[in-house]
Amino acid sequence: MQNIRHEQAILSLPFGLGYTIDITQTLAALAAAGMPARVEAFDRLRFDDGRTAFLATPDPTTTVTDDDVAKGRSDDVILLPGGSEGGVLSLVRRYPDLVVVNGKRGRVWADGRQVSGTSMQREATTGWRTVFAIARSIIMHGGGTRAIADQTGIPSDEVRAAMQTLGSHVFHTPIGWEARDRPALCDWAYAAYPGYGGVRTCWRRDDTIDAQADQLIGLGGVMSDRWAAQQSGVLVTPDRLTAFFAQHPDMAALGYVPASADDATVKVVIPQDPTVLTAAEGCCTDDFITGHVLYEAGWVTVDADAVNGLRQLLHFRSDLAHDLRWHPGGSSEGRVG
């Protein structure tokens, strides 16, 4: 996966990769936000108004609990790598005393809101969500503009605009759009996807993962993570479940209790990228998204075998789908416009 990310050169989009923190950038961002601070110790800042803040660099998608706040986490300045913001932003709204700084992008959150810097949505390349969703659709399904719009839930005019971004990497045929180099575009869509963003919470319930998945599917959730990978045929223990929802369900009413990221049986995500929901294949997200979830789930240990297994599966399925589109056995089925 890292080789794909480092070597790919198909498009220039904000990939949101890396995990570097520069305290100089952090101090500059705080000063620009009207919150000048100086380093008082290796792990502590002193604001000009007298407040002290302990620096914290947690997994930015972790769930901060009330116990953490009681231990002093409400006084922390949380530093973020450039691009990994989604899971922590819910904490800013929940605990206004937290100060969250993305020095690389110059964004600061305090008092429960963003106080400085451009928003991720405005700064990102226009339509980055649609570009990736449309690329995934072309790889796996081909088809004309209307067919892609139906497949992804993206308006036709946005589909047409995305084709200009994809440029020479796609081309139009009598039966619709196709990737000029399917393996290359497949690898790019798989490895360079900047993430679904949004807000994540973590929950635990003493029940089988299958039972939890079935219940959340019944509530309109779209499943991902290791459970979804196993549903696709990848040999992996289905002991983790990430559920995407447009609106957060009442997990406490379902018998769940808040948990840390390590102890959770279910992670609920309200994605910034709505195509994760609209382009879902049955009860699960497409394998591109599941591969991304698996890769990003471990900060130390990556599910390398599962990630590679999904990549091989995507290559196989894209080749098979392409053959069926162009050689449908004499029928018109598969012809899309």
For the structure shown, list the relevant keywords.
337 residues; alpha+beta; Arc Repressor Mutant, subunit A; 7-stranded mixed β-sheet; 5-stranded mixed β-sheet; 14 helices; 39% helix; 17% strand; disordered C terminus
Average pLDDT, rounded to a whole number, is 78
SSE order, one letter for each helix or strand: HHEEEHEHEEEHHHHEEHEHEHEEEHHH
Amount of beta strand: 15-25%
Query: Count of helices?
Result: 14
Number of strand segments: 14
Helix content: 25-40%
* Widest sheet, order of strands: 1-2-3-4-5-6-7
Largest sheet: 7 strands, mixed
- Overall shape: globular
**Spans of 5+ residues with little confidence (pLDDT < 50)?**
11-22, 60-66, 68-74, 120-124, 331-337
Distance between the termini: 34 Å
Q: How many structurally independent domains?
A: 3
Radius of gyration: 21 Å
Summing up helix and strand content along with how strands pair, one would put the structural category as alpha+beta
